[in-house]
Amino acid sequence: MPTQAKSEKIEELTEKLGRAQIAILVQTQGMTVKDMSELRAKMRASKIELQVAKNTLLRIASERNNMNELDTKILQGQTTVAFGYDDEVAAAKAVVDFVSGSKIAVLKSGILGGRALTADQLEKIGKLPGGKNNARAQVVGTVQGPLASTYGLLTAPLRDLCYIFQARAEQLNGGTSAE
């Protein structure tokens, strides 16, 4: 039976997991206080909330959010959770950059939209250029380019016909345009 403090912690983790766009699990066991302070400062600058969580409480909170895909085997050792509430790509980029520069911290896993991510998938997300808005802009540009070409192709005959009518009307008026 969990104590009152543990129940409150589970509720807090459940709420944060439900609200976060992305949650990244990092093993920080063995990091010094200086390293942890540096990690917290970098995450704060990127608008990422960092919290050290007990593995059992994190497992219970993830189950309460119906995140059953999370591999519970990775919940060993000290687990620090980085909660990104705004931009998933920017959050992953910040955490991956820190972990790649650290000799101690290791990416464990992540949760994106209720689905579990592996460390490799997180690294790939972290290497995407720009942020979420940049990725959206690339998708829109990819779709918009062919649509604009198709629109131009379909409207060209009608536009050309209008030009022909206008030229003929000017020719019949004796070269003067109607004003």
Features:
ribosomal protein, five-stranded antiparallel sheet, 5 strands, large ribosomal subunit rRNA binding, Large ribosomal subunit protein uL10, Ribosomal_uL10_bac_type, Alpha-Beta Plaits, rRNA-binding, 57% helix, 2 domains, single chain, 179 residues, alpha+beta
Summarize the structure.
With 179 residues, the protein is of the alpha+beta class. It has 6 helices and 5 strands, in the order αβαβαβαββαα.
What does the model show?
The chain folds into two domains: 4-128, Alpha-Beta Plaits (2-Layer Sandwich), CATH 3.30.70.1730; 130-179. The chain has six helices and five strands. The chain has helices spanning 4-19, 33-45, 55-64, 88-101, 119-126, 132-172; strands spanning 22-27, 48-53, 79-84, 106-112, 115-118. Helix 1 packs across helix 3 (55-64) and helix 4 crosses helix 5. It is elongated. The N and C termini lie far apart (89 Å). The mean pLDDT is 83.
What's the helix and strand layout?
Elements: H1 4-19, E1 22-27, H2 33-45, E2 48-53, H3 55-64, E3 79-84, H4 88-101, E4 106-112, E5 115-118, H5 119-126, H6 132-172
Antiparallel strand pairs: 1-3, 1-4, 2-3, 4-5
Helix pairs in contact: 1-3, 4-5
